[in-house]
TrEMBL record:
<keyword id="KW-0732">Signal</keyword>
<feature type="signal peptide">
    <location>
        <begin position="1"/>
        <end position="21"/>
    </location>
</feature>
<protein>
    <submittedName>
        <fullName>Secretion protein</fullName>
    </submittedName>
</protein>
Length: 135
């Protein structure tokens, strides 16, 4: 009976660990973890490096950072306490893809859109790899 109970406890523990994983591990996708007060947190699974830019709606760059992650990915929290009320764009990109999400800052909180408003796949072909075979 004790063995069955121990196995059951282990099974529940592993289920909890697996359910914490964010879906979409295979693709470059920004996952919103929380919007709390004037802080936003997000993760990029399986991404080792990315560039993050924040723009005003008129296209003015107000923040840029190159982020390095681990084998598991990148976890990042931004405090937007000093940002005036308004809408902003956050652009996250790696060598293959560029994502744009919207950030809305109000007097009391900040919201990061969970769905990208733009996803652009980059063409990584250089001139050496563009030959075409014909018969």
């Amino acid at each position: 009976m004790k063995t069955i109970l121990k196995l059951l406890v282990l099974a529940v523990m592993f289920t909890g660990v697996n359910s914490y994983a964010i879906e979409g591990n295979e693709d470059f996708r920004l996952h919103v973890i929380k919007n709390e007060g004037k802080q936003i947190s997000f993760s990029l699974n399986k991404v080792k490096a990315a560039k993050v830019s924040i723009y005003e709606k008129d296209g003015t760059l107000i923040y840029f950072e190159k982020i390095k992650g681990t084998e598991d990915g990148i976890l990042r929290t931004f405090s937007l306490e000093e940002f005036p009320e308004g809408d902003y764009l956050i652009v996250v990109e790696n060598e293959n893809k560029k994502l744009t999400h919207e950030i809305s800052v109000t007097d009391k909180n900040t919201t990061l859109s969970t769905t990208a408003i733009s996803e652009v796949y980059k063409n990584n072909l250089d001139e050496k790899n563009t030959s075409v075979a014909s018969r």
